[in-house]
Amino acid sequence: MERTKILVTGGAGYIGSHAVVELYEAGYEPIIVDDFSNSRESVLAGIRAILGVEVPCYRIDCGDETALRGVFDQEQGIRGIIHFAAFKAVGESVQEPLKYYHNNIGSLLTLLRVMPEFGVSNLVFSSSCTVYGIPDQLPVTEQTPTKPATSPYGNTKKMCEDILNDVASVSKGAIRTILLRYFNPIGAHASARIGELPLGIPNNLVPFITQTAAGIREKLTIYGNTYDTPDGTNIRDYVHVVDLAKAHVVAVQRLLDGTGDAVETFNVGTGHGNSVLEVVQAFERATGHKLNYTIGPPRLGDVPAIYADVTKATQELGFKTTATLDEALASSWKWQQTLGK
Questions:
Q1: How far apart are CA 224 and CA 299, in angstroms?
Q2: What is the DSSP string of 303-329?
Q3: Contact indicator for 317, 250 with CB cutoff of 8 Å
Q4: If DSSP codes are grouped into helix, strand and coil, which group holds residue 274?
Q5: How far is CA 53 from CA 7, 29, 48, in A?
Q6: Distinct helix (H) and strand (E) counts, the chain
Q7: What's the CA gap between 177 and 162, in Å, rounded?
């Protein structure tokens, strides 16, 4: 039986690589587009080791319209796209806003220009809970008002959502989009062949934890302990990356089935939050490793607390996460051990 082709931009990245694996295992034919500006080519070997096949990969910048058009020319019959390709470090975006606006918005615009030429109408967009800003109430639902972003990164996600809504309103069904608002992806594939692979100093909590446990970092810095939360540290909704990847498979199938509206939005999280200190304690419990950590000043752009209401995804997508926090952290540690020092 012929597989349905799905283009995955940023498919060699952390979430993208796991989505590629889940797509293939669900019977699709994923095609990767990635310029490897924030990923490593070794990821392709990891995907190959898991699946036993070579997934096609085009080493191009998604913002290069000519190169992107060439991929569509080469890979006739693409039915849908998952658009991950974007810069994603909140702190860096505060320091280099133009880099983020140019890349994150520019790549989406390029994609939207090329898609109609090749009759591709289905797009799953990698959005973020950052569009909720600092919410007035928790948990946040898809109807929670979006707010001014606390970082340029978050603003690019909000602007991309606005663009996709505007395009849908005039495209008469030529572009259909599912916006997946992620909470905090953590963990790694059970095989430990792919996982989070930060280049340089990690921007996310869990790689910093695992690198500290592995002796790569002297200590973990917890940014702020005076937030209005039970233990003073930030609260986030930590979702296993494999669960998150599976949500994309469900979203792709929904688009291909033609159900739902021209633009739909779904939160993808676990439905509850954990503080940074709780994550540290869970890691110690799951792995038996004590962590050396210290308290530092709060970071610019950090939201005190946010976690998802996942009722809509459960009822309309039929999707629910299954992995526990301890399981996700144990998989992160297993992945870190394969990386060594």
A1: 8
A2: -SB--B--HHIIIII-------HHHHH
A3: yes
A4: strand
A5: 17, 11, 5
A6: 12, 13
A7: 12
Name the DSSP letter for residue 140: B
The residue written with tokens 């030529």 in the block is 174
Catalytic residues: 153
The first and second tokens of residue 115, run together, are 């898609």
Q: Report which of 275, 291, 282 is spatially closest to residue 330, judged by C-alpha positions.
A: 282
Report the distance separating Cα 36 and Cα 47, nearest Å.
15
What CA–CA distance (Å, rounded) separates 338 from 341? 9
- Which two tokens mark 250? 């469900």
pLDDT for the residue 341: 57
CB 313 within 8 A of CB 141: no
Q: How far is 341 from 339, CA to CA, in rounded Å?
A: 6
DSSP string, 228-260: SSTTSS-EE-EEEHHHHHHHHHHHHHHHHHT-S
pLDDT in the model for residue 200: 80
Domains of the chain: 5-187+239-269 (3.40.50.720)
List 179's β-bridge partners, or say none.
125, 265
The Cα-based distances of 331 to 38, 46, 195 in angstroms read 22, 15, 9
pLDDT, position 148: 87
Distance (Å, whole) CA 211 – CA 339: 10
Q: Which residues of the chain have pLDDT under 50?
A: none
* Residue in the block written with tokens 């259909």: 176
